[in-house]
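ARCHIVE ENTRY
Sequence with per-residue tokens
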Amino acid sequence: MALLITLITCFVIPLATSQTCQTPDDFVAATSPGHVIIGGLFAIHEKMLSSEDYPRRPEIQKCVGFEISIFLQTLAMIHSIEMINNSTLLSGIKLGYEIYDTCTEVTVAMAAALRFLSKFNSSREIMEFKCDYSSYMPRVKAVIGAGYSEITMAVSRMLNLQLMPQVSYESTAEILSDKIRFPSFLRTVPSDFYQTKAMAHLIEKSGWNWIGIIATDDDYGRMALNTFAVQTTANNVCIAFKEVLPAFLSDNTIEVRINETLEKIIAEAQLLDALKNVTFTDEGNSFHFDAHGDMNTGYDVVLWKEIDGHLTITKIAQYDLKNDVFVITDQETKNEFRNLKQIQSKCSKECSPGQMKKTTRSQHICCYECVNCPENHYSNQTDMDHCLLCNNETQWAPVRSTACFEKEVEYLSWNDSLAILLLALSLLGIMFVLAIGIIFTRNLNTPVVKSSGGLLVCYVILLCHFLNFASTGFFIGEPQDFTCKTRQTFFGVSFTLCISCILVKSLKILLAFSFDPKLQNFLKCLYKPIPIIFTCTGIQVAICTIWLIFAAPAVEENVSLPRVIILECEEGSILAFGIMLGYIAILAFICFIFAFKGRKLPENYNEAKFITFGMLIYFIAWITFVPVYATTFGKYLPAVEIIVILISNYGILCCTFFPKCYVILYKQETNTKSAFLKMIYSYSSHSASSLAMSHISLDSSSSNITATNPSSGGRPAAWQESRDIRAQAFAHTHRENAASLSKTWPRKRISSI
């Protein structure tokens, strides 16, 4: 204590009333001789006093504004050196010091640096100019200071000339870590990079995004301001205002930092390298300089609180530079740290999940509005800049969604109400087919069945109807590659076979009751039942085979709908699908033309009229199908084709077989051979008179019929059969009604028949 009082009395108290520098020794604040001199730069006074607005003479002016905190730092340096000298750490070597008051002025600090660099043991305090200062012996070996970064940078650039070690206790400017510019600079405090990083981290952790910045108007303040602005912007924190205050304001809250690095100096010649490798411990913590010359110390996070009108400063955490975390020692300070989040420092209310930020016209990105995420977008965090897009192929999301939802896979399933209805109609059609087959089998030898082409032809047509009804099952259920390839070809071939058989029947009817010789000759050449059926069906088989080989239908996921995935059969080639349906339409149109030609045949034999109606139903159904199928989408698209298949199939089945079944079941008196022949005779008589054959007698007619029979050996069997039926009708009717006709008709009328 006595030593400290002596130092204050002898060296420092005169500084409180600093006088104008007269000689170089007057410039020195405190000095002590030794083998190794350590320089010191401390801003013991606040500023340099000048009597004018700007200096007019190149001289060092008087300093004013005594700083007690910096004065204590000066005493700490002196005390440390005295402790080293009084120990055995440097045996035989005494450390001296030469401390200068910078007066918080770069000019004064530069003057001190010039004296540091002056030649050692020189009678004159001069600095020699050399190209190589390796052998040059300066006045001091190392410099402690300065405090302000602006002063430190100016002094360091001069000390770099001789690579004189400089250790700062307060200069934190980030640029001083650049070893290219400041190779001999070291410091015992962290860089401002970590300070601003810790501040930005604390602000982010507290949930603030609307802050103001106050900085000093010097290199230290401006650099820290720029660095902090960049780091806060990266964390989406907005700066409400920036205030720059005059530099070099007194701050009595700065802790005294005692520099202990010189205690580890082991040799005079390797001073800079030794300083860089210094490691020491304090309260269990190890400290050292890194590659940038920065000390691995951290920061204390202090909380300023006003309690009962008194301002208290409490340490609540410590910032760890290496791990970029805040270290909290006890539960009380942990609660204080958490309470920082309760402080509201935001320009706008945070957006909840399901919303996104919409920046307003303000220049700050922290001022925004919250808008809901649109459909198929989501946000799962607060204050998201934009909503995330769902995978539109497999996912969907409603408005203001916090997550994406998987799309539901849909298809025309077996338990769907419409599918059940269509299946019921298909089963009903199959039951009709079976019932008709049973009726025709039990009435095999009746004229109605024989006039329908016989049981074989009826069975083939009924089988086709059965397959058409059964094909609807391939359109229902989860689509598979097999069902997709089978359903269209199965329907196309079976329906083509059905139309081909009906076409043959239409030709047969027209051939049997046609009295136009030219038309008869054409029909006789055309009528070849088995080749016609095989050719017509074979062409459709070839179309379907080419379709399956080159562009086969396959299962496809239709993701165009917003919330569901439609599992459907993609036809592979719309052209092939159209050709298949178009070919059936061509056959149906030809069948319609032939049936229309024979629409005025005898009533009980008038199958052509009903075939005409069946073809009309087919055309109406499939013409309607084209626009409906083209404009329909979704899982009910297959139902459209099923409905058309059922309509066309029911239409042809009902028009072809229901009238015959009605005659078989309810008009059995007309389903006899005699009634049938009488009906044919009546139609033939009417047709004969219409052909202007009024002058041919009944006998001549019979003779003509008999005469023409021998030449019919090469004609088709159906035509021959129809001619025989007509001949039998004429003979049978003539025998039964000759007497009555002779009594009631004039002789001339009988001759005309």
